[in-house]
Every structure is written in C-alpha cells, then in structure tokens.
Design brief:
Distance between the termini: 56 Å
Strand order of the largest sheet: 6-7-8-9-11-10
Number of domains: 2
Shape: globular
Helix content: 40-55%
Number of strands: 11
Order of helices and strands: EHEEHEEHHHHHHHEEHEEHEEH
CATH class of the largest domain: Alpha Beta
CATH architecture of the largest domain: Alpha-Beta Complex
CATH topology of the largest domain: inorganic pyrophosphatase (n-terminal core)
Largest sheet: 6 strands, mixed
C-alpha cells in the first residue's frame, strides 16, 4: 500500500503538506506543479489499498479523476477551501472542505492535527494573503515580533515561488522545495538554516521591484486592471503583486493579466468583501475558478483580453 500526496505548489499547499509529513513521515509520492496546475489527480496513478491525500486544489476541477480513484479502491482524504461543487458521499472518501472566506487549507490541516505544527499554518496564512490573521495566530502562539516577521517573509516567499507558466519559470520545483523544508519542524529554523530560503527571498525582492513599476492598463472607480510584460519575473511576481495591491487599494477589485509563454494570458483577480465574488466572475470564462475573494482564469486568448477587461469594468467599477 502506497501513500500519494497531490498538493498545490503554493505556500498553502506546501505548508499543509509539511504539517502532515511531520506528523507522519512515511515515504510518499509527491504530485505537484505551478500554482495554476490544479488538475493534479489526473497524474496520480494509485491502486486498490493506496491512500491519496489532496491538498489545496478544487474538487470540482478534479472530480472525474477522484471518481476514478475511488472506483478502483483508493482511500482519498481531501483538504481544501476552493469551490468544490457536489461533495461525494463515499466510504473511502474523507472530506475536510470549508469554503469560508477566512479559511485556508493549512488551517484545515492544523485543525485535523490538533495544532501540532501550527507555526506552518501561520506561515501559510501569510502566504495566502491573510496577514492580520497570521499575526493574530502568531501572537496567540507566543511568537515575538522577529519570529512573526520571519514567518511572514517565509510565507510570502513560498507563495511567490509557485507562480509561473511552467516549473521552469520557478526558482524551485515545489516538490524539491518540499523535500528541503521537511527536516524543519519550526519555520524559523528553516529560515535560519536552509539556503533555499535565502535564494527565494532575494528573488522575491528583485521581482517585486520590477512589478511595482508597472502602470495599470485600466483605472476606474472601484476597479483596476494591470497587464504585465512577457517575462519570467512577471509570471513569478503575479500573486505577490496582487496581494500587495489589495493592501494598498482596499476598495478596488483588482485583475492582473500575465502573458503565458505560449500565447494568451493568465488572470489573477482579487475583490473586496461585499462585491460580486471573484470565483463567480472568473467562472464566467473557460478555465476560471477560485475563491470568493481571490480567483483567476488559467487562459485568456489574446483576442479576449478586451472582452475580459470590459466585463471586469462593467462588473466592478462603481
């Protein structure tokens, strides 16, 4: 019997995986990719009696392969906070799915483990764009200001690493990064001792310096759209730029369009509370989905950019 983990390559997926592997260090096959690579179960080849643990990818986008695995006798545990659609009732399916706004996958794992490795759930909160919650959790855990700031930098850096058109855009394959993280029960020790963290932080700071210089393509009351250049640094910085802009333009819906190496664009969308949910808007386009406050579209053809921008302005400008 084998263990398989299918996990999003961003901070939330990595930190959820880290907690589970610290709790159970059994050998496992890792299946992951860039942040937008979410149909991961299609790459899981498990047999009757195996266990597959899915972390931080939409059940709705993996439904057919989930049903395939259950049909052949695989036990599946699913931790996620994205749009799920109908959740199956099956004796070999264990669901930890919660779509609440202030929930992230690592928090669901933290609840499952009774808080045993909570520091990594705090790191994920920072990476997932929830800094106020991360700071509150760190304070409740007795972490001082320096340790909290370190955990925030780790979360942001891990999340930044997952953005790209392909793994070749990234500084680290998320599967390799997961192996480098594994020996550290405390993320502060990871920051102090792991060379990967130094490289990630330096890359993040350099890419964000370039991204901050990009002027918006659309500025309307309540809505902004940014179009980044066709460069690896732009693809890497998309998520971090989006989270930073949310903190600056608190009353705006934001969309960032990033060119794909093979043509077309990826869209990242963030919206304030009380507006049309981001996932609802993005599901109006093929390959769109996500969460209420943060969602995206995996492919927008060059010819559809104006349609996307117009629809975004119509939906969110006030």
């Amino acid at each position: 019997m084998s263990l398989h983990y299918a996990f999003n390559g961003d901070a939330d997926g990595l930190c959820a995986l880290q907690q589970l592997r610290l709790a159970d260090p059994a050998p496992a096959t890792l299946v992951t990719g860039v942040k937008r690579d979410i149909e991961l179960l299609r790459r899981v080849h498990a047999s009757a009696g195996d266990t597959v643990v899915v972390l931080d990818v939409s059940l709705d986008r993996n439904r057919a392969d989930l049903e395939r695995l259950l049909r052949v006798g695989v036990q599946v545990r699913y931790f996620d906070h994205h749009f799920a659609g109908d959740v199956p009732a099956h004796p070999r399916f264990e669901s930890h799915i919660d779509l609440s706004d202030e929930v992230w996958t690592s928090l669901l794992v933290d609840r499952h483990l009774g808080g045993r490795y909570r520091a990594w759930a705090i790191v994920a909160a920072f990476g997932d764009g929830l800094p106020a919650i991360g700071r509150a959790m760190a304070a409740a855990a007795g972490r001082d200001a320096d340790a909290t700031a370190t955990m925030e930098r780790i979360g942001v850096s891990l999340n930044y690493n997952a953005y790209g058109n392909a793994v070749t855009d990234l500084h680290f394959d998320p599967a390799d990064l997961a192996e480098q993280m594994l020996t550290y029960a405390d993320p502060v020790d990871f920051a102090r001792a792991c060379p990967a963290y130094v490289r990630l932080l330096a890359g993040y700071e350099d890419d964000l310096r370039k991204a901050r210089a990009v002027t918006p393509a659309l500025v309307a009351k309540g809505a902004r759209v940014y179009v980044l250049p066709n460069a690896a640094w732009a693809r890497r910085s998309t998520g971090s730029l989006a989270n930073e802009l949310v903190r600056v333009h608190t009353d705006c819906a934001l969309a960032i369009l990033t060119p794909k190496a093979g043509g077309g664009f990826v869209a990242s969308v963030r919206v304030p509370q009380g507006r049309t949910p981001a996932d609802e808007f993005c599901r109006g386009f093929d390959t769109g989905g996500g969460r209420r406050l943060a969602a995206g579209v995996n492919h927008i053809a060059d010819s559809d950019v104006d349609r996307f921008t117009g629809a975004f302005r119509a939906k969110y400008s006030t």
